Amino acid sequence: MRAALMYGAGDVRVETVADAAIEEPTDAVVRVVVACVCGSDLHPYRGMPASEQGTPMGHEFVGVVEETGSSVAGVAPGDLVIAPFAWSDGTCDFCREGLHTSCRHGGFFSAAQAEAVRVPQADGTLVKVPSDVDPAVLPSLLTLSDVYGTGYHAAHQGGVDARTSVTVIGDGAVGLLAVLSAKQRGAERIILMGRHKDRTDLGRDFGATDVVAERGEAGIEAVRELTGGDGTHVVLEAVGLRAAYDMAVGVVRPGGTISRVGVPQYADAPIGFASLFGPNVTLTGGPAPARAYIERLLPDVLDGTVDPGRVFDRTVDLDGVPEGYRAMNDREALKVLVRP
Q1: Does the keyword 4Fe-4S apply (predicted)?
Q2: Domain 2-146+289-338 sits in which CATH superfamily?
Q3: How far apart are CA 89 and CA 104, in angstroms?
C-alpha cells in the first residue's frame, strides 16, 4: 500500500510500504476514506532532524473496516467507522473514567496518511456510523477524530458554561472548534485571538463575539479592555507555543482557568506567585480523550446542527500530501483533507 512518510523538516514523501495487517486478535484493518494533515504535524515538519528512515505520519481518519481479528465483536467488515487519534481498550479504569488517552493498553496513531491503517483495540477504539451517511458529512465526521474533540476537551476541562466568559488563543482548526464548543456549552462572550481574517470570520460564524488580532502585550491589553480590565473566566490555548501561554496568563481573570490543548513546544513556563498562584488561576488541559466525546458530539454532526468540517479548506489525494503540508505550513490552507 502507499503512505506518507516524513524524512525530516520539510521532507514528506509518498511511498510504497508494507500492507496494514492483523497482528493481534483485537486488531482491525481499516481502509481510509478520509484523513488529513493536523496542525500538530507541522511541528516535526518544521523541526524534525533529517533521517534515512522515514516516519509514518497522520493520526486522524474515517474509513471502512476491511478485516477484523478473531476477538473483535463490535465492528465488522464493511462498517464505516471513526477512529479517534488514540486507540484504547475501552474497559480499563482510565477508559471508564473517560481518559482514553491514558488507557493501560492504548497508544497513539501515527500512520493514517495512508491507504489503510491497522487499528489495535478495535472494539474500544472504533465508532461505527451509518454506512449510508451523506458523503458531504465525511469532513465533519473526520473532525471527531481529533480537532473537534480537542476543541471540546479544552472547553470541558476549562469548565465553560453560560456564566463564563472565554478567550480562545489561536485561529487554527482546534482554536476555531474550541470557539464552537464554547458556544455549544453556553458561553455568551467568546473572544477569539487570531490575525487571519478568513479564519476569524469562520470563528465568528462558530460563535465568537469579538476578535483580537494583536499579539503579545498588545493583545493582552486589547482583551483586558474588552473585559473591563479583568480578563476572562476561561482561556482556551490552542497553539502550543510559549508566547501563547504567556498571553493566556495575561488575559485570564483572577480565579479563572487556563485550559491548554495546543501541544506544548516548551518545557519551562511561569507558574509562580505572580502568574498563577497569586491570582488563584487553575491550569489544566492535555491531549483530548477524543473517544470519550464522539457519542456526545456525533448526533449534532449527523443532523447538520453543526458543521465543523468547514475547517477544511483544501482537499488533496495521497500524492498531494507533501503539497498539503507545504500549504498549511505557509498559511495558504487552514486544514487539508486527504482522500486517498
Answers
A1: no
A2: Medium-chain alcohol dehydrogenases, catalytic domain (3.90.180.10)
A3: 8
Q: What percent of the chain has pLDDT over 70?
A: 100
Domain residue extents for the chain: 2-146+289-338, 154-285
290-303 burial, b at 16+ Cβ within 10 Å, e below that, comes to bbbbbeebbeebee
The string of pLDDT tens digits covering residues 58-80 is 999 999 999 999 999 999 999 99
Pair 279, 125: CB distance under 8 Å:
no
pLDDT of 189-208, one tens digit each? 999 999 999 999 999 999 99
Cβ contacts of 276-279, under 8 Å, gap ≥ 24? 276/249, 279/252, 279/254, 279/255
Question: Quick one: pLDDT at residue 169?
Answer: 98
Contact predicate 248/220, CB 8 Å: no
pTM: 0.96
- For residue 110, the model assigns a pLDDT of 95
Report helix, strand or coil for 132. Answer: coil
Q: Name the amino acid, one letter, at 271.
A: I
Q: In angstroms, rounded to a whole number, what is the distance separating the alpha carbons of residues 247 and 167?
A: 10
Average pLDDT estimate for 285-303: 97
Residue 11, burial from CB neighbour count under 10 angstroms (0-12, 13-18, 19+): middle
Domain 2-146+289-338 and domain 154-285 have a common topology: no
Amino acid letter for position 226: L
Domain 154-285 CATH (choose: 2.60.120.430, 3.65.10.10, 3.20.20.210, 3.40.50.720): 3.40.50.720
Q: Tell me the C-alpha distance between 275 and 177, whole Å.
A: 27
Half-sphere exposure of 141 (CA within 13 A, CB side): 24
Distance separating alpha carbons of residues 194 and 53, to the nearest angstrom = 37
